[in-house]
Predict the 3D structure of the following.
Amino acid sequence: MKHWLIGIVSLIGVIGGGALLMTFAFTQDMNSDGTKETEIQRKAKTYLEQHLPEAKVTGSLYDNMGNFPFEYAARAIDEKTNTEFFVYQDEESGRFVDTYHASLWEDQLERRITLPTLNDVNAELDMVVLFDNDKIQQLGNARFDSKAYLRTEVAPTILISVPRKQSEQDKAQVTAWAKSLREQKILQHMTVKIDYVSEKGELLENGDSLFVKL
């Protein structure tokens, strides 16, 4: 299953910050309102100057398909960490928020995490790490702590696609793997979601997934 497809099938409705958001940039409509795009970029620039001064606005995104929690967002990048993210206005509170830390942590963990070894799997597994940006925002300034991603409140979901049916040994092997991430101090808390798929990427096991939570 393709990297982006795991995100759709497995976690529709969950607001991730980086991989899931950035890979759907193709939803931008050519008929977007140029005035609104200019406005969101201007306001995002002011927001970044106050909260993330090393980042800069690079463009905008218009979502006319309801994939994201916004209609218009500014694209931004922190060149120091090479992290791409969004800045947008929350519809309920009216406050501006960013997806910087979600994007940063997702990218970092996807590079650091070694995939689990499961029986009868010859193909390379596909993995996506997702953080809930709403929970990150609730940390306030604590999200700037370099170890904030280890907090229980923002524990990520790790999505893994396994190209076969479920095996009796899977839960034990995935649990041992998750505990090894804790022992290595890569993560302390997490939910691992295993989807079983065919070679064509179709969900097996009637769509039921294996969950391991630490």
Remarks:
- The longest helix spans residues 34-51.
- Helices lie at 3-11, 19-22, 34-51, 100-112, 133-137, 170-183.
